[in-house]
Write a sequence for this structure.
């Protein structure tokens, strides 16, 4: 068992989440009682909605001492509410054999439950009596062979009757749209998705966090989806989804308007009606269903497929040139960084503008991770640190200034992170609110929506011994990137400094030029 100590509990929980995300196995969080347990809450909520297994062990005081003005006592029973799959209370003594049996049973059930689909956090609250510390020479005895049990997880194979029903519904569908949601990389699943696109009958629209951006998939949809001029041409007659959430709000709103039949594929059969048109939940893993579809898709008119491909191709041709011509700032600079990022690197991207920029730029070959369970800015750096702890190759964190400085305790520990690279987009404001229609029109934009700050990462880098480069123009960026991803003994930070208003102007200008180009064609 490998144990790490992280002084900031909020960072510790997100680090555990990043580790479990990569390991696909439960990581155990251990803390003392009181506010320490509450500091785990943001990461626990993220793990719940991102379906990442965690085992959360919180120390507590015996129930009779709660609410008696005794130190470090709060109401910890089921403190995480609905944000955990289940909460257990451990025995407060082991005087009776049944208590020992009960403790073993609780731990077994908690571990299995955290792994069972959908995976997620499970909480064990452990009341402890004084004295808390052992006397000199005191020995703690534990069973070398604790009683355990195994759980066989169901496979949910589809029956012949279910397949016959799906086949009947599939007949006559000429405009099939497949939209994968967030999930970890799965080469076998991606291979089948690519095969479906090669039929020229299925359109695959894939956000970057889906890790399904393969050959033939639509990845630049954020530039045109939802525009009235293209609505009828792109309307499906069957929507098929799997995975979790998507990034693109434009795509989400477009799909809600269509009100066509919608199949969602999910092993536990839970109904997630994101697009308000759910007509069938297919209780199975996506891979066998899509493999079955591959043999059932009838050869029909490919004009629907070609309509999407035409839009994708024109944006793909126009975007790189536009980004080379724009004033130096986040959009163009990040495009340059992504072109130089090794394909083997894991990319962890923060929420807010960072993940949206990434989605605007189309297909990525790297695996993409993002805390889209709750879509908050907190914990992005810590989650990337957790991934770097357990991953041998490079981990590249792309983050904005608000997310980065909010989570600076991610680096407050004594463990090496030579495989971590940080791309920091610092506009000294939190520029996303200039791009959201509501806040951008408010007179209080700069005072209450943006967060004006003059920080840079220079002092943090010096404190922790990180490599550090600050760039303010394209020439410096090119020079820094020449060696940025090379091996080093310590993490490296590349800080890209730009203005919030200038970034707003660049993004709007690029969007307008692309729409004009599409309209002319």
């Amino acid at each position: 068992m490998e144990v790490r100590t992280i002084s900031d509990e909020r960072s510790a929980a997100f680090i555990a989440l990043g580790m479990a995300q990569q390991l696909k196995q439960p990581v155990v969080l251990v803390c003392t009682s009181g506010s320490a347990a509450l500091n785990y809450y943001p990461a626990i909520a993220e793990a719940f909605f991102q379906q990442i297994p965690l085992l959360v062990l919180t120390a507590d005081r015996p129930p009779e001492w709660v609410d008696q003005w005794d130190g470090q006592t709060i109401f910890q029973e089921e403190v995480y509410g609905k944000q955990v799959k289940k909460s257990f209370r451990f025995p407060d003594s082991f005087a009776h054999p049944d208590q020992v049996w009960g403790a073993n049973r609780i731990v077994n059930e908690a571990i299995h439950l955290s792994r069972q689909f959908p995976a997620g956090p499970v909480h064990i609250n452990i009341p402890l009596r004084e004295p808390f510390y052992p006397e000199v020479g005191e020995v703690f005895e534990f069973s070398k062979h604790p009683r355990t049990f195994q759980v066989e997880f169901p496979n949910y194979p589809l029956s012949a009757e279910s397949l016959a029903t799906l086949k009947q519904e599939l007949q006559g569908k000429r405009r099939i749209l497949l939209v994968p949601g967030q999930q970890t990389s799965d080469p076998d699943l991606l291979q089948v998705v690519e095969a479906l696109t090669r039929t020229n009958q299925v359109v695959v629209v894939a956000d970057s966090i889906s890790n399904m951006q393969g050959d033939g998939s639509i990845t630049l949809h954020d530039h045109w989806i939802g525009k009235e001029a293209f609505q009828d041409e792109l309307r499906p007659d069957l929507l098929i989804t799997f995975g979790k959430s998507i990034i693109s709000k434009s795509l989400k709103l477009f799909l809600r308007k269509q009100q066509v039949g919608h199949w969602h594929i999910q092993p536990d059969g839970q109904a997630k009606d994101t697009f308000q048109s759910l007509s069938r939940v297919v209780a199975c893993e996506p891979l066998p269903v899509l493999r079955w579809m591959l043999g059932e898709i009838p050869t029909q008119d490919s004009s629907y497929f070609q309509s999407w491909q035409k839009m994708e191709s024109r944006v793909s041709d126009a975007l790189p040139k536009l980004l080379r011509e724009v004033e130096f700032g986040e959009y163009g600079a990040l495009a340059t960084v992504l072109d130089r990022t090794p394909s083997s690197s894991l990319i962890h991207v923060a929420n807010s503008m960072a993940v949206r920029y990434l989605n605007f730029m189309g297909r990525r070959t790297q695996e993409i991770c993002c805390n889209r369970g709750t879509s908050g800015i907190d914990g992005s750096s810590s989650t990337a640190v957790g991934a770097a702890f357990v991953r041998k190759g490079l981990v590249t964190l792309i983050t904005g200034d608000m997310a980065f400085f909010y989570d600076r305790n991610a680096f407050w520990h004594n463990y090496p992170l030579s495989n971590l690279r940080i791309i920091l987009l610092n506009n000294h404001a939190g520029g996303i609110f200039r791009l959201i229609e509501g806040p951008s029109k408010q007179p209080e934009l700069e005072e209450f929506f943006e967060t004006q700050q003059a920080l840079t990462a220079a002092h943090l880098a010096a404190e922790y011994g990180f490599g550090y480069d600050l760039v303010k123009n394209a020439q410096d960026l090119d020079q820094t990137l020449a060696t940025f991803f090379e091996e080093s003994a310590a993490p490296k930070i590349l800080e890209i400094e730009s203005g919030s208003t200038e970034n707003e102007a660049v993004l709007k200008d690029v969007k307008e030029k692309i729409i004009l180009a599409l309209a002319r064609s």
